Amino acid sequence: MGEASSSERTPSAFSESTSSVTATGPDARASLALPSPRKRKNPKPLVVNPGPSTKSKRAKGPLIADPEYSWVRGDVDKHVSVFDTRDKLDQFVSVYPILEDSVLDYAVAKPCRSWERVYMKPRTDDYDFSYVYEYMFKEYSMTFPLTDFEAGMLSLMNIAPSQLHPNSWAFLRCFELVCSHLGFEPSLSVFTYFYQMKIDKLVGWVSLTASHDTPLFSLYNSSYKFFKTKFFKLCCHPEDKEKCLFFHSDHSPRFPLYWQKRTRFPPRPDHRLTPEEK
Known about the structure:
The chain has 278 residues and is an alpha+beta fold. Helix content is 20%, strand content 9%.
């Protein structure tokens, strides 16, 4: 990383519209406050086919009028972000670290405008960004860039970070932390042996369910309802994609940045588990 500061690297239009981010803060963490796992080597790509979908009997809420987002469940559209000013966002990130030191010069948090919804793609004048929820940092002690396991799971499912339900993020984080405690790398194949995706007719927050009668982990919260308005944006400077949160060195995304219409999940990978994994 160069010695230039964030303000020197960033155009004024970018810096004036963004919120400052701190990498340190008091240990005011909630119940999943365990150390983040070690950095992971890039996992080997899995060649998978979409698993069987379970169609919901009825869609929740009214349909979204905009044809570009007609595939999104109507109730998702109701939720406007509470992080609508820089002051509110600054107050949050001053307490909860959201970025690793290595990307402080290349990424910023940004509040949402009143018309923005968590499923939306950027307009032509926007920088690359991805919506994230407050609970990811406040309750699960996550930071960006995501670990290779986390990014690999999002890529495997073809979903954005904000598209995964909080309880399902808890499954990923618990699996990661257990693997770290036991001293081995978290495996996409092993995780997908224990979990499968629930797929509805219209796209909402994606949930994972246990593949077996005895689940690996219990639900983090049996009634997780109050997260839906607590989202903001993480933005990446366009000239620093390879140093930022979301991209590989060739500028290809590590995972989908925005909500996806076509999600996927592999079938149970019994035949793909190594002897060690079994």
